[in-house]
Amino acid sequence: EPEVTQTPSHQVTQMGQEVILRCVPISNHLYFYWYRQILGQKVEFLVSFYNNEISEKSEIFDDQFSVERPDGSNFTLKIRSTKLEDSAMYFCASSGTGRTEAFFGQGTRLTVV
Amino acid sequence: AQSVTQPDIHITVSEGASLELRCNYSYGATPYLFWYVQSPGQGLQLLLKYFSGDTLVQGIKGFEAEFKRSQSSFNLRKPSVHWSDAAEYFCAVGHHPGDMRFGAGTRLTVKP
């Protein structure tokens, strides 16, 4: 069964460093998303991406965040200068042409120290 | 404002007992409704979804959910819980994944 894969599963970084979280969406999907879940809190939408551009973003997705689809298979989330409060589980998701539901990856746990 | 409420933070049931997890939402129009399950260290797996039509929907792993428009609810049920059902359950609503709001989750513990 096709699935969304994320790497790494866990990343530890120092405050102020840049991190790139990687995702391989389901191959025939057209819409891609990032969500995050701070420990003990709700899953929150960050950004959606379609046709090589951001289609929606939340107020959380500020200038320190960026997304890119560098090739035909990967979808990345970059955090330019990490803060302690960026520590969270980051989920990548994708959806097909109907865009009715999101299929989630396993998540990347980011720990900023 | 759009919101999703899962009133129960933690529920404990005995194996073989029935289960109902509650979800209420506030949304401008009837959204799509979802239940996801997250096992420890795992991602979010879709259990079931409601878009339109029959208000009782069947999902994977023996789960079902009933949409009640008058109560703005979408409660998840299972007639007989298995130990492997222990996990965190999230209700989510939205018209598309970029519009999705999640509840805070309900952690299910299953007693032997």
- Low-confidence stretches of chain B are none
Proportion of beta-strand residues of chain A: over 45%
Approximate helicity band of chain A? under 10%
Which whole number gives the mean pLDDT of chain B?
A: 93
In terms of per-residue confidence, which ranges of chain A show pLDDT below 50 for 5 or more consecutive residues? none
Strand content of chain B: over 45%
Helical/strand content category of chain B? mainly beta
What would you say this structure looks like, in words?
Chain A is mostly beta strands. Chain A has strands spanning 5-7, 10-13, 19-24, 31-37, 43-50, 53-57, 65-68, 75-79, 88-95, 103-104, 108-112. Chain A contains no helices and eleven strands. In chain A, a hairpin with a 5-residue loop joins strand 4 (31-37) and strand 5 (43-50). Chain A is globular. Chain B contains no helices and twelve strands. Chain B is mainly beta and 112 residues long. Helices cover 0% and strands 52% of the residues of chain B. Chain B has strands at residues 3-5, 10-14, 19-21, 24-26, 32-38, 44-50, 56-58, 64-68, 73-78, 87-94, 101-102, 106-111. In chain B, the strands form three sheets. In chain B, strands 2, 5, 6, 10, 11 and 12 form a six-stranded mixed sheet that branches. The A-B interface holds A 4, 6, 31, 33, 41-45, 48, 55-56, 91, 93, 95, 99-107 and B 32, 34, 36, 42-46, 49, 51, 90, 92, 96-105.
